[in-house]
Structures are given as structure tokens and as C-alpha cells.
Design goal:
By secondary structure, this protein is of the alpha/beta class. It is built from 11 helices and 8 strands. It has one domain: Rossmann fold (3-Layer(aba) Sandwich), CATH 3.40.50.1820. The relative contact order is 0.16.
Length: 280
């Protein structure tokens, strides 16, 4: 674990592993430490992974002003990390909710992004609509699973706006290609590693200006990969294809059988997709 100072003096941490060209990794959650990314299915054999703990999570300090958890304000933390690393341009990978931060960074600092890899990304920052039917149609691909009936009923409640805490717990199997003890333990660890107060501020009013962000992304010249999981109800492939169209140089990859954590569902295929995109 290595620390550096943000513009407001908050000590921020990141974790390095692997060999090869650096790949800066922004975790999701939102506001979850980077530990759950692990070695991203074995990418450490090809890249030096730099997993950033957002302020207030993992080994990073809680800031004096907790309003600084807002996503658009975290762009300055990513830029401080780039400067600390001494990189003129960086390859930037972001998962899930962390993709909102990555695209805001790319919109504000397009000349600092060499490649952008968005893994099952959230769409708040760009204002795309994921309809209930997008999620339900994707979920139906899992209809032969023994847990499907209960999980699908809960997902219907979630998409209809009548979710309870039990509903959110019941839809958890949809995030994974295999709903086993390892997946359950992974989810439980993720909840413990998340700063829930920070997550509530992350998407606070003023965090996102989708029209302006989409306009800025249209001028991003860097190559962009959108990696979707075939069965991911959080980031359905139809919407991911729409997301990819916001960039002038993008490609979409839909990983067969994968849910929201594709490097866990099929590490070999995930690494192969990233290798094909980066050439490394």
C-alpha cells in the first residue's frame, strides 16, 4: 500500500501488483475499496495493476469535508494519482460505479487517457436509460437456474420501485455466473468494504451533467472498450452498446455467460478480451 496527498491534504492509498505497463483501476460500489478487484482474473501477468482506494475507503483517509465524496469532485483525486505516478497518459480501467468517475475524468482530461476500459459500467454520468424490461429480459436468460423464481420475483419488485431490503438480497444471484459459497462470501465482503455514507454522497445533486459529459466524450480520441456481461442485469448489453456509441473510437465486447464481475466468471476469457484491446 502506497499513499499520496490529494489537493485538500487527504491521504489517499493505492495498491500495486503485477508486472508490465501500468493500468490504473477505479473500483465500483460506489465507494468500495479496490481490494475486491483482486488480480482481475490474472491481468497481473500482463500489467502492473494500480488499484485506487477512493477517499474514505480501504486504506484511504476520511476527508475533513465529506461532501468531497461527490463523484465529480473525485476527478481531482484521479488526476492527483496520475501526477503522483508520473504518467503523462494512463490506461484507465473502471468497474461498475467507478465508471462514472472514469468518464468524468476522460471528459475533463481527455489528453491524459491513453486507453479507457469500462467494465460492466454504471450509466449515471452519461444519462442513459436502463428500462425495467432491459433488466428483466436479461434476467430471463437465467430461467433454468434453481434460484430463478425467487430472484426474478424480487427483481420485478426492484424494477417496479417497490423493493425492500429482502428484495435486494434476493436478486444477488443475478450478479454472478455461479451462485455458490464463493459468490456469497464475495458479496458479503464487498458490503463490509463499502463506505455507505460516501456512496450516498457520490451521486448527490450536482454530481452529473449528462448532456455536457456526452458532448465532451464525443471529442475523446482515445480507444475505449465497453465490456458487458451477457447476463448482467446491472449493465445490460443493449444499453452498453448505446454507451459505446458515445465515443468516436470504441468497441463493445459481450462476455458470454458473465454477470457483473466478468473476471470472476471466466478469467481466461476476460483476460483475452482485455489483451485483444490493449495488445498486451
Amino acid at each position: 500500500m502506497i499513499t499520496f496527498s490529494a489537493h485538500d491534504g487527504t491521504r489517499l492509498a493505492y495498491h500495486e501488483s503485477g508486472d508490465g505497463p501500468p493500468l490504473v483501476c477505479l473500483p465500483g460500489g460506489p465507494m468500495q475499496s479496490a481490494a475486491y478487484l483482486g488480480d482481475l482474473g490474472g491481468l497481473t501477468s500482463r500489467h502492473r495493476l494500480i488499484g485506487a482506494d477512493p477517499r474514505g475507503t480501504g486504506e484511504s483517509a476520511i476527508p475533513p469535508d465529506t461532501s468531497s465524496y461527490r463523484c465529480d469532485l473525485l476527478v481531482d483525486d484521479v488526476e492527483a494519482l496520475r501526477q503522483h505516478l508520473g504518467l503523462d497518459r494512463m490506461d484507465l480501467l473502471a468497474h461498475s460505479g467507478g465508471a462514472n468517475l472514469a468518464v468524468l475524468y476522460a471528459a475533463r482530461h481527455p489528453d491524459r487517457v491513453a486507453r479507457l476500459l469500462l467494465i460492466t459500467p454504471s450509466v449515471y454520468a452519461v444519462g442513459l436509460e436502463i428500462t425495467p424490461e432491459d433488466r428483466l429480459a436479461t434476467a430471463r436468460l437465467r430461467r433454468d437456474e434453481p434460484w430463478f423464481a425467487t430472484a426474478f420475483e424480487a427483481l420485478e419488485a426492484v424494477t417496479a420501485g417497490r423493493a425492500t431490503a429482502d428484495s435486494w438480497n434476493a436478486v444477488a444471484p443475478f450478479w454472478h455466473s455461479r451462485w455458490d459459497e464463493a459468490a456469497r462470501a464475495f458479496d458479503e465482503a464487498g458490503e463490509r468494504a463499502k463506505n455507505h455514507e460516501a456512496a450516498a454522497v457520490y451521486t448527490a445533486e450536482g454530481a452529473f451533467s449528462p448532456d455536457a459529459t456526452r458532448a465532451a466524450l464525443a471529442a475523446v480520441a482515445s480507444p475505449v472498450l465497453l465490456l458487458a456481461g451477457e447476463t448482467d442485469v446491472a449493465a445490460p448489453p443493449r444499453v452498453m452498446r448505446e454507451f459505446a456509441e458515445l465515443f468516436p473510437k470504441s468497441e463493445i465486447a459481450v462476455q458470454p455467460g458473465a454477470g457483473h464481475f466478468p473476471w470472476r466468471d471466466d478469467a481466461t476469457r476476460f483476460v483475452g478480451i482485455v489483451k485483444a484491446f490493449t495488445g498486451r
